[in-house]
Amino acid sequence: MQEIPLCLSIGHLLPFYMSDSNTTDFTNPSTFILLGIPGLEAAHVWLSIPFCIMYVIAILGNITILFIVNMEPSLHVPMYYFLCMLAVTDLILSTSILPKTLSIFWFKSKEIDFSACLTQMYFIHCFSTMESGILVAMAFDRYVAICDPLRHSTILTNPVVAKIGLAVVLRGSMLVLPHLFLARRWPYCRTNIIPHSYCEHIAVVKLACDDTRVSSYYGLFAAFLVTGVDVSFIAVSYTQILRAIFSLPTKDAQLKTFWTCSSHLCVILTFYIPALFSFIMHRFGHNVALHFHVLLANVYLLVPPVLNPIIYGVRTKQILDRLLQLFTYKET
Q1: φ and ψ at residue 207, rounded to 5 degrees
Q2: 289 pLDDT band (50/70/90 cuts)?
């Protein structure tokens, strides 16, 4: 999902930024230079405050979700297994981005090894793809739980949940691997300066001095494939879920059933709406400053890991009750 807007923004704006940079001719640099938020270098220290707060919330929130689900036997069901997968994905995704970004803001540590840059690029896109797949798995769990509740425990057994998780991991890993192989084979001889806070795929490939259209085309193909398939599956699942909910005899039953889906719906909106907004901005906002595009690219990658544990912690009674019990126990 993240590939589309950055392909449009960095692709159009990078040449203008590079023209003002102090570049030299060289081949295949061993390190790249990440600029952080271009144009806002003077505000990096101030920007680090919300970034650091978001990282702390993401780490503590997702670890808390994992701890509560592990400690509470009643939560050992498919819905919360998928939630744990989401928490692990969010932990890795946020940790792939923020430590390096904060080191740029605080210590001006802008250099990143070529291999480390490609590794970061792989992790970001791989786990973003995995997160989308996990949301599909959670939609399937809600579909079975509401539309065929008597067979839920026989359809979504632990081995089936494990196979779904494995499929999500393999899909994310395999779809992003061509990015890595292609980026590694391109010759880089324009500049080693990346006007970004992390090694985003298109931002890196644009530095190559070769025809990189195959990378751009594959990136768009993978983004549309993942987004199209996942959003379509979620839409079909929730169409059936809503039909089942509206067929219930009383409004109380309808609201109670819909409430079981509310957390998942909020997480879906948190994941897809910022990316959609970013796509629209980059598609129609070519005159928007580069720093705004980079900030937006950070927001839609970092907001889901921050909000997901908050949404499930507040809106899921079992998790909230267990969390309150922990604090009550510590106070007594």
Answers
A1: -85, -10
A2: confident
